[in-house]
Amino acid sequence: MSILTLAGSPSQRSRSSALLRHAAHLLRARGLAIAELGLRDLPAEDLIEGHYAGPAANALRARVAAVDAVLISTPVYKASFSGGLKAVLDLLDEKALAGKVVLPIATGGSPAHLLALEYGLKPVLSALGARHILAGVYATDKQVRVDDDGASHIDDDVRTRLEDSVERLAEQLRPRGVVVNEAFDLGRLALAGGFSV
């Protein structure tokens, strides 16, 4: 199973990107493959002019198509997700997120901007075909701090919510046929007449 993280902030020391990096770290610890992409990885001219047919947009679409899940982070500006992220999402195909698990992550100046996830970002993700959008993780600027050296400090409440969301995402990515408790499954087979114990 593979996952793409998409950072929607233009800032090198973004709080939303700090949450995204922490989520990616937790997923890597579970043995999941993570690819990272940010606004700075795409040519600014392509984003501004919407070069849908350009090589960068083609590569973006190929990367999204190749993964099972997408984690998207964004700062909230003026009660909406970042314009840079919107420019990236505009380069995707109409159903680019169909069949993928999506976890939105956002940070903003106050709790009032929490609804930017529900009423701003999630409808765009749905328009891209996403049908399995996990409950987003939102944090205020006071709950996530990034030092000048890039080290991040995440409040316990936000860290717990992020870890819970990562757990839900990992659960969604587990193959459906995985045996969780072998003794239980062997006993169930015996009861069903599959074999004798």
UniProtKB/TrEMBL annotation:
Keyword Oxidoreductase found: yes
Alphabetical keyword list: Flavoprotein, FMN, Oxidoreductase
InterPro entries recorded: Flavoprotein-like_sf, FMN_Rdtase-like_dom, NAD(P)H-dep_FMN_reductase, NADPH-dep_FMN_reduc_SsuE
Domain NADPH-dependent FMN reductase-like positions: 1-143
One Gene Ontology biological process: alkanesulfonate catabolic process
EC number: 1.5.1.38
An MF annotation (GO) of this entry: FMN reductase (NADPH) activity
Domain of life: Bacteria
Family assignment from sequence similarity: Belongs to the SsuE family.
Protein name from the UniProt record: FMN reductase (NADPH)
Organism: Alcaligenes xylosoxydans xylosoxydans (Achromobacter xylosoxidans)
